[in-house]
Amino acid sequence: MIQTLFESRYALSPDETKQMDTTRLRDNFLIERIFDADTVSLTLTHYDRYIAGGAMPVNNTLVLPNPDALKADYFLERRELGIINVGAKGTVVADGTSYELDFKEALYIGKGTKEVSFISADPQNPAKFYINSAPAHHTYPAKKVSKAEAEIVELGSAETANHRVINKLLVNSVLPTCQLQMGMTELKSGSVWNTMPAHTHDRRMEVYFYFEVPKGQSVCHFMGQPQETRHIWMQNEQAVISPNWSIHAGAGTSNYTFIWGMAGENLDYGDMDHCAINELK
Questions:
Q1: Where would a tag sit more exposed on the chain, N or C end, judged by fewer CB atoms within 10 A?
Q2: In terms of residue numbers, what domain contains 131?
């Protein structure tokens, strides 16, 4: 049975957020279910009208839906789309052009594409297409980006438990986009901290998607203003919304991988307001 799940979430201020208990924090910022068999699951946040979700085709071809809340003739009428496959091999078809995506390969699809569908190569070992989308003002061509084509940066160290490799996949140094940027950070064995020292960036928001979290392990995601932080415990293949006023950092009980997606008024990856580690509260 093919399903479409869609949820819309309001944007919240720092003052509202710091009054929340665990349940309310999770209800507003955590996206618990990204992948279900033969389902497209989408969550719209009013922070920059960003959409995050997943498509997991098993026995059927899945078509990117057009939720009523978008008030558009089709999903990408005024949007752009980024996809990273975190499952087995599959194919994305965009207006009749097929793009085969293997594990950890990415695809950008520009504004104006009328139909996007998702297919797994093997129903017994399905693809898992992680999806991000942002409003777009210009049409840029579709492009597949492999890890070999990514801009790669290695940061951190084993001594500070944050030795990691950043794969910049769908960023403006690799291909043109309107405002959507996506990449993937892989932590080395023995390292658990990501994005540390933490930072904020007032001109764009982010969504983090955690995966390759080993069975029985978890990730603790930290959010909030630098002097008013909160935490959310997360499991494998879950995502969390990060407002522009919030830090976004995590520590796991094991190493793991996460996908960062962001949108806002600028494409400067280095536009960050860093927070000193010993000044976080």
A1: N
A2: 3-279
